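For consistency, the fold was encoded as tokens, which produced the following:
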Amino acid sequence: MNTGSEPLVYIGIYPAKAGHDYGAIAERNFRSVVVEKQGQPQLHSRDKWMQQF
């Protein structure tokens, strides 16, 4: 996650059999979100955060 004003650049190379379950993320999304409030990063439950929209 990038909390700064400059773009975060990253490259990751993993074996195809690493065991990551991206299908679960696609179906249920992430549990938490990080947002900027008053210039500071804050961690929130995704469900509670999305209720305000």
The longest strand covers residues 32-37. Residues 22-28 form the longest helix (7 residues). The two ends are 23 Å apart (CA to CA). Helices lie at 22-28, 46-51.
